[in-house]
């Protein structure tokens, strides 16, 4: 079986061994006794809490990565190798290059909201000196080029194709236009789309009365992206309510939704997504560990991916942040199998991922052909961009089986 993965954060899927090695080499403070085992324990979320707690682990290792172009390229190259080991034919990895600048005084907006939450010896203070470069020697362009170089070498070495989605981070509007610039300037070099990440769903971004007041610039940037033909995906419906999905689609022109689980809280918004053929980037393990599923305001606590499968919504299966979840793509498939998913579900999900990838049309056709051969499916035609949403939703083989259960308690 060949897979397509559309939602994974490059800085959230670094090998624990690489983090440990780099932190030791740079003399940075490691959790606990300083062992690899203690590092893994500090990074991994053991039980669901909330998104802020889930993201707090990034503060442990980002100081070791920021500003170090050699390490960033290495991480990108290792990422491709890891994807190849999981039989991934194509992957879109996302990150924000501005967060990897050396000695950056503008903290990740999620980290700014942590309010003391930490998994490192009861403290949130993990600030240390950054990498070996001096201020001014590293730019967002050089960081992006290091990632692209690592991906290119990885594709040559391991055969898996990886492309980049660049993230705007909510609360850092000074970066938005520069992210768009990078998307435009590097679209022929491996950048395929733009994203919005960060803890925007619990801010004014999700309230009707504010109506994106704080991020009017964000709306302008995403409108410009649409006009320039730059593909758009948005984190929504994870920590925030179904209304954030509606805002992502209507105000920001999202073609895909990162996570989107809480869309099932509002039937009218969910039906709009089905009608518009919005693709949901589902990450099963992280959906629980971020507290997203536990916060669902629905009578049923069944995972929304089960509803997606039954309704033939367009969705893909992804890992999100393996460094934090300590899971790989096969773990996501195993969990869904235990919930009643069959090979038919997985086949359809991977074809949907290919169809909704941000690749240029000719490369997308080649990817679908690759899946076609791998799955032994005949008489499959890539839907035309002019085909109606409903027909693209039902055109991927084979027909849906039924799934009837799936909770975090039942995961084992």
Distance between the termini: 23 Å
Structural class category: alpha/beta
Q: What strand line-up does the widest sheet have?
A: 1-2-3-4-5-6-7-8
How many independent structural domains?
1
What is the CATH architecture assignment?
Alpha-Beta Barrel
The Cα radius of gyration reads 20 Å
CATH superfamily: Metal-dependent hydrolases
Considering DSSP H and I runs of 4 or more, what fraction of the residues is helical? Answer: 40-55%
Strand content: 5-15%
Please give the largest β-sheet. Answer: 8 strands, parallel
Summarize model confidence as the mean pLDDT.
85
Pfam families: A_deaminase
Membrane topology: Peripheral membrane protein
Region (Disordered): 386-412
Domain Adenosine deaminase: 4-373
What's the layout of helices and strands?
Blueprint: E1 3-9, H1 16-25, H2 36-43, H3 51-55, H4 58-65, H5 69-85, E2 88-95, H6 109-112, H7 140-158, E3 161-169, H8 176-185, E4 191-197, H9 216-227, E5 231-236, H10 242-250, E6 256-259, H11 267-275, E7 279-282, H12 284-289, H13 304-310, E8 315-317, H14 322-325, H15 329-338, H16 343-355, H17 361-375, H18 389-394
Parallel strand pairs: 1-2, 2-3, 3-4, 4-5, 5-6, 6-7, 7-8
């Amino acid at each position: 079986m060949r897979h397509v993965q559309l939602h994974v954060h490059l800085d959230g899927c670094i090998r624990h061994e690489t983090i440990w090695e780099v932190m030791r080499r740079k003399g940075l403070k490691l959790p606990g006794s300083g062992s690899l085992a203690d590092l893994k324990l500090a990074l991994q979320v053991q039980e669901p809490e909330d998104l802020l707690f889930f993201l707090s682990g990034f503060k442990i290792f980002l100081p070791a990565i920021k500003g170090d172009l050699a390490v960033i390229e290495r991480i990108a190259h290792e990422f491709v190798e890891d994807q190849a080991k999981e039989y991934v034919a194509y992957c879109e990895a996302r990150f924000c290059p501005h967060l990897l600048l050396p000695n950056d005084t503008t903290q990740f907006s999620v980290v700014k909201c942590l309010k003391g939450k930490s998994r490192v010896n009861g403290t949130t203070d993990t600030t240390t000196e950054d990498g070996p470069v001096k201020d001014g020697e590293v730019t967002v362009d050089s960081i992006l080029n290091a990632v692209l170089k690592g991906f290119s070498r990885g594709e040559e070495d391991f055969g898996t194709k990886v492309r980049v989605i660049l993230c705007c981070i909510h609360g850092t509007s000074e970066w938005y236009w520069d992210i768009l610039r990078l998307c435009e300037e590097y679209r022929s070099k491996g950048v395929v789309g733009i994203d919005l990440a960060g803890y925007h769903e619990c801010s004014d971004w999700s309230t009707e009365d504010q109506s994106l007041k704080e991020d009017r610039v964000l709306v302008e940037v995403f409108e410009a992206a649409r006009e320039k033909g730059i593909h758009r995906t948005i984190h929504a419906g994870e920590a925030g309510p179904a209304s954030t999905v509606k805002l992502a689609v209507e105000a920001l022109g999202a073609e895909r939704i990162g996570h989107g689980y809480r869309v099932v809280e509002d039937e009218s918004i969910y039906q709009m997504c089905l009608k518009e053929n919005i693709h949901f980037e589902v990450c099963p393990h992280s959906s629980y560990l971020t507290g997203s599923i536990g916060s669902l305001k629905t009578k049923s606590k069944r995972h929304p991916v089960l509803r997606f499968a039954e309704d033939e919504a367009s969705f893909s299966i992804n890992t999100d942040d393996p460094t934090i979840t300590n899971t790989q793509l096969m773990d996501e498939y195993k969990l869904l199998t235990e919930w009643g998913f069959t090979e038919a579900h997985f086949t359809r999900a991977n074809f949907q991922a290919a169809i909704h990838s941000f690749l240029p049309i000719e490369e997308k056709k080649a990817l679908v052909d690759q899946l076609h051969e791998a799955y032994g499916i005949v008489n499959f035609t890539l839907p035309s961009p002019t085909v109606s949403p409903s027909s693209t939703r039902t055109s991927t083989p084979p027909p849906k089986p039924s799934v009837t259960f799936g909770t975090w308690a039942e995961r084992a």
